[in-house]
Amino acid sequence: MKETPFFFLNRGRRLFGVLHEPGGKSRREGFVFCSAFAEEKLWSHRVMVGFARLLAQRGHPVMRFDYLGSGDSEGDFEDATLETMVSDTRCALATFQERIGNPGPVNLLGLRLGASIAVFAASGSEAVKALVLWEPLVDGAGYAKSLLRINLATQAAVYGNILENSDRIVSRLNTGETANIDGYEMTSAMYRGISGMGLGALSAFGFSARPSLIVAINRKKGARRPDLEKLQRCLRGAHLHEVQEEPFWKEIKLAYRGAPNLFDLTLRWLEHDER
Amino acid sequence: MNAETKPVVFENRSGFRLFGILDLPAARKRETGVVFLNPGIKNRVGPHRLYVKMARRFVGLGYPVLRFDAHGLGDSEGGGDENEILEDFFGEVEQGKFVGDTAAAMAWMEREVNIRRFVLAGLCGGAITGLLAGVSERRVSGLLGIGIPVILNGSDIDAAAYMPQEELASLRQMYLGRVTRLRAWVRFFTLRSSYRILLKSLFGGKGLGRGPGRGGSWTAKHRECCGDNTNPLFAPALHRLLEDGKRVFLIFGGSDRLYFEFREKYLRRHTEMLKMFEERFTLKIVEEANHLFTFRQWQESLFASAASWLSLFP
User: Of B29, B276, B292, B295, which is most buried with the most CB atoms under 10 A?
Assistant: First the structure.
């Protein structure tokens, strides 16, 4: 296996990527990974690296990349919107095809907000063959509120109480200021983009039928996930499965390097071609 | 002319490929390079891209900057795929797990970029790695430690038994402030409260903790050294660094519990010793800031004071 870090250009900005190429000549279908948002990306990083390596060992070339203003890419977090994230993903797809020398269709794999971005990026794109959506975000408004709660929790921990509530933070966002989420300065454009991201938007984008795997990642087995069931109904051709794993995209008591149940399920879906 | 940013890969002593990003200033003005070290299990960008933001400032001052992932972290090889208890991982870092990788990074910089003097920089686990790596390295001129841990973590070490008084006082204030809140009582009666910590903060006393565990990272040496969960490597390493003429800049958030630990378990015990090194040792507290310097104004304060200190190096 060969791993190559590199920069590529999208709209004149340098984005960071890593290409995982399998050894040997036989190549299977490729993957581009869409990472989670803000600090969730950092907590889940090693799991994404681990799965990229596992796929590459099995003959699949994989590319991971950082969106504008995240990871090692150029720009500041404030520069990013959902639109730039989708644009970055499409550019990563084209870059990946060029680098592996194969213009054939590619699979997109995303985690959390990255899974939603994968749905948007796949829309109308001939380049995307299948979607693997790990714990996709369906309720954008709910997610946006949870981001604001992170700010409130920081205030409470430091000041002992909340000096600025969610409504005031949103008012400030509306006047062009940013909201601090775990140290990231979220703009109004990003907040509005995430808030407006619901089932309707996702299903409209994902309307062209393509094989899709939706994975509900539950801490306890058997938890019902009506949000993902609705998404499954909206994305034609989608399979919904559940796995038991810790929520490795946030701070937990384990250093999560691999998600064996999640990896096994995804590989089974890919290899036994449930599609 | 713009600075140059490029991905780099080099090997550590075990043959694992380590991945990093090298920032080179447009015009080489400085002889000293800065190496950022992983904060805990997070990768080379740091929480909320703290290292990226700092690297951009430092390269703007003319310093070459390397941010890299130690083995088993970020994009780098090694480390296996077994999940591990976070506290145990922190304990390994606090005992020098990544010292060898830091030496490999400096060796690579020396070979490829012709840099022979270094400032090691990092938050939390990155700071303690820098401290321990700096001791044995003639190439290290300084340490920039942000929120450095003075204690030793481990699943067999009961941190609650050795909480600093300031942290207990802060928790006491928080618990008392919640007495009238229904949600707090719901947590209490649904077994979701941390009862030991709650009792300890309200009534104090050392008897409420479990005390040191058996085996693992907790050894007889630790008990002999400090009688609590202080990292026995910390003070000797810091003193050695200063004795060797290296500069040390430690910066903490004023509300960071690691600062409380540092004050109680290092500063109060070694005040006289530090007086000998006033010229080389700088301590800066950013009022109210938390461990990660989350809010922008805290970050600005951190960046400004770190840049000012760094300017001491050629």
Answer: B292
